Amino acid sequence: MHNLKISLLISSLVNLLFILSLFLLFDYFEISILKIDKIKLFGLVFIFFTGSFIIIHLIIRHFLLTLLKGFIRRDYSTQTEESNSKQDLDSLTKNLLRFASDKNIEIELLKNQENYRKDFIGNISHELKTPLFTIQSYILTLIDGGYKDIEILKNYLKRTSKGVDRLIYLVKDLDLITEFESGIKNIEPESFNIIKIIDNIFELLEIDSGKNNISLVYDREYLQPINVLADKDRIQQLITNLVVNSIKYGVKNGTTEISIQDLNDEKIIIRVTDNGEGIAKEHLPRLFERFFRIDKSGSRRKGGSGLGLAIVKHIIEAHQEKIYVESTLDIGSEFSFTLQKS
230 by DSSP, 3-state: which? Predict the structure, then answer.
């Protein structure tokens, strides 16, 4: 409105200047207004008012266009600010949701780690407690006078030695699995004949299997070498752990059988099969966890660290291979794993 008043004032000043110019023009040429022909005077007046109208029209038009541009600019600026504000709000919302999601994942991870730590400490205490208490009871018996009887002394010292061996076995397995999980333990692949490894394992475990009348057999004769590319010591440990488990949970006069087949042009699959106690389906998903035992009291009486299958899993993963297990309760189990041919 202020701009409109200024425009009208300018228009009035233009008109006044125009009239003054006429008077000055008449005075300069000594022309009397009364002597001017009426038609000429009418023409001058018409030109004057027409010019005034055009000037006022142009000024108002310029003002209105300026005002309209201002409204359009202001409206566009408002829309842009609203759009930017909405985008900023959406971006902030997404960032907050992402942050909350990350924190929830982190909290769950910490909870799982804490639960894992508690379970691990609990399992370790149980595994260490049994041989330690056994060793302690034998030693206390000997201190109380049992050492005077030679037979009792020999018998208890042998049992104490077995308890110490179990502790050593447990500590070694813990050390090995910790190295695998921390990435310290690396595999050292080499080409070797897997048949020779299996023969060595059968010879080492012949006495243990004989105690339970369990036969260790191949499913067929392997006349030609079967060479694989893997860490020789780790693969021997893997197969040993599987066969030891099979013997431990086998039935009297049972069988533990190893077979080797071509999976494809690049890999073989090795199967360790028995007709032992078998494993219920609900226990299979947790079979490779640390210290997981199906029958905890029975398993401890049978010995072992409770880490054998967990170590097997880590060895397989270190070789980037796969392991499978199939089992039926009271019928038997089959563990199978793949290896790279060389």
Answer: strand
pLDDT for the residue numbered 16: 53
Q: What is the pLDDT of residue 28?
A: 45
pLDDT at 34: 47
pLDDT for 258: 94
Cα(275)–Cα(230) distance, integer angstroms: 29
Tell me, what CATH number does 278's domain have?
Answer: 3.30.565.10
Distance (Å, whole) CA 202 – CA 148: 41
How far is it, in rounded angstroms, from Cα 274 to Cα 335?
9
> Is-contact 256 247, C-beta < 8 A?
yes
pLDDT value of position 145: 83
The residue assigned the tokens 């060479």 is: 227
Determine contact, residues 243/216, Cβ cutoff 8 Å: yes
Rg (CA), the chain: 49
Which residues of the chain are modeled with pLDDT < 50?
A: 24-26, 28-36, 38, 298-300
Contact 249, 276 (CB under 8 A): yes
Domain assignment present for 106: no
pTM of the model: 0.59
Mean pLDDT score of the chain: 76
Q: Please tell me whether residues 160 and 248 are part of one structural domain.
A: no
Give domain status of residue 82, yes or no: yes
Cβ neighbours of residue 218 closer than 8 Å, sequence gap 6 or more: 198, 257, 258, 259
> Distances in Å between the alpha carbon of 84 and those of 72, 95, 98, 300?
18, 16, 21, 67
